[in-house]
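User: structure tokens for this one?
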Amino acid sequence: MPEPILPTYEDDFVFAESKPFALESGGSLQPVTLRYAVYGNLNEARDNAILVCHALSGSARAGDWWPQLFGEDGVFDLSRDCIICANIIGSCYGSTGPQTINSATGKPFGANFPLVTVRDWVRSQSLLLDHLGVEKLRAVIGGSIGGMQAIQWAIDYPERVENCIAIGSAPLTAMGLALNHLQRLAITNDANWRNGEYESGGEPMAGLALARAIAMISYKSEHLFAERFARNPNRNGEDPLRSLNERYDIGGYLDHQGEIFTRRFDANSYLIISKAMDNFHHANGRQLEHETLRRIKARVLLVGISSDWLFPAEEVKALAERMREAGVEVEYAELQSSHGHDGFLAEPQALALIIRSTLPANHFVDPDRRKR
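Assistant:
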């Protein structure tokens, strides 16, 4: 794996200081901080910006988790492009979230943090771009809930988006809603949950770890699990035939993923973000959806992932068809991967090839041009 690409600068954008930032849920926040990172430089016209939107547990530092998309064999050309990525409201990587001190109480918001939506995230990002002097984006791109943001950008700010690229993204099915529900229950049923008012050192670690383990199942595929783990005993020497508590290899893997996740993420943020993921839907009802999608003026690329069962490829393809019926210039492509939903992170070279071959070459890195 290549080394992460370091941002040219990383900063905080503070807004909603004199007037509350109204949320779609009816709540509000004041002030609001967005932690953001920039890779490359804005040109004089400020028309070379690409907005990258991160997934559930991601951060503004896109170069850390998508480094393969930068450079000659990727999508982003830092000699020409300026990549901007902002940490979403509700997260725990610098932007305003449940760990932020509530000025009204002098304590962290915790479970009292208001409900946020994908549309709230997009509107906050639009204010950041206003601050940076960026009127129009050459592209907005993301996978999973990052793709939800990209779609919402194209709907809410049609004049500001030239290309919209969403990978493994569509409104969740009932199965996806069910899995997220169980993940939140895992956290709130932890004895350390304390109605979200846990303190440092007393977090609901077991519940958060279980939530992450459930999520990991939905991020992978049966084929990948069979290939990597099969019915093998845990690689540390445990024998599941000997004791109730001794695990198979897949159990050891899931427990490990849950344990390391608790070192870097906050349980309240997990609840807030997963609920926003549940609530993403551009419209209720076919006719209203048609009218909503008609707002899109960007070129749209929707990428399904062949083995994704959290956001099944057929759901992504069906969304592309509904966009086409609404008059949107949309292409559907499918990433062939055994990695499940995580394919957009695990198969970056294949994803970059799809993006370069589908959208106009002058909008992204063209390896042939660069080698001439």
